[in-house]
Amino acid sequence: MGNASVTSAAHEKVEIMADNSPKEKMTAEQLRKRGNELHDGRRFQEAVEVYSKAIMKDPSVPTFYTNRALCYLRLQRWDLVCKDCSTAIERDPNCLKAYYFMGVAFTEKGNHDEAINLLQKANDLAMKQRQSYGDEITSMIRLCRKRRWNRQEEKRISQEIDLQVYLHRLIEEEKQRQLGQLRSEWDDGDVASSSASSSADASVEKKAAELERYHQEKKSELDRLLSEVDDRRKRRDVCRPTLVHNNHSLVEALSKSSFRYRTTFAGRYLSN
Fold first, then answer.
1. 252: pLDDT confidence band, cut at 50, 70 and 90?
2. The pTM is what?
C-alpha cells in the first residue's frame, strides 16, 4: 500500500514537471522561433515536434504548417508535406510557400501534372505579391515538365517497339500463310500437271524465294518508316531548350533544384 502511494506521487510529480517544462510555457510564436533554430541546425525531426506544439497552441496560423512542411520536405516525407500544405492553403488561399512545397512533393511522387499546376500557382502568386525567388520556381517548373516529357517519351518508345514487333509478326504470319498455300497447291498437283517434276520444283522454289524477298522488303520498309518518324521527332526535340540530357542527370538536377533551399534559400523559405 505504501509503495503504491509512492508510485502515484512520483507520477504526479513527473506530470507537474512536464507541465512546467520550458517548452510548455512558451507561446506559439516562441515555439515557432525555436523550431526555426532547430531547422537551421538541421535537426529536422526535433523541429517538427516543436512546430507541432506551436500548432496545438494556435492551429490558425498557416506559417506553422509551412514551416513544418519544409522540415518534412527535408525528411522526404512527401505525403505529410502535402497534408500540411493543404491545411496552410485552407487557412490562407494565397500561401505561396504551401503551393511551392506541395509542388515539389508532387514532383517527387511522380504526379507531374498536379505538380506543374501547383508550381505555376506559386509562380503566379510570387509575381502578384512581388516576391523575388529568382529562377527557383520557374526552374522547378521546367524541370518537372522535362521529367513528365521523359516519362511520356519512355512510354511512347515502349509502345512503338510493341507495335513494330506486332507488325513484324503479322508480316511473318502472312508470309507463312502464302508459303503454305503454295506448297499445298504443289502437293495437290495444281502447280504442275506434267511429269516434269524437277521443273515444277524449281518453279515452286522460285516463287517461295520471291515471297520471302517480298515480305522481307515489307519488314525493312516498316523499320525505315518508323526510323524516319523517330528521327524527325529527335530533330524537333533538339530545338527545345533542355535542362538535362539523360536520366541520371535528370534525377541529380531535380535533387539539387528541389532542395536548393537547404543552403542559399533556407531563410527565404522558412518563415521567420
1. very low
2. 0.61
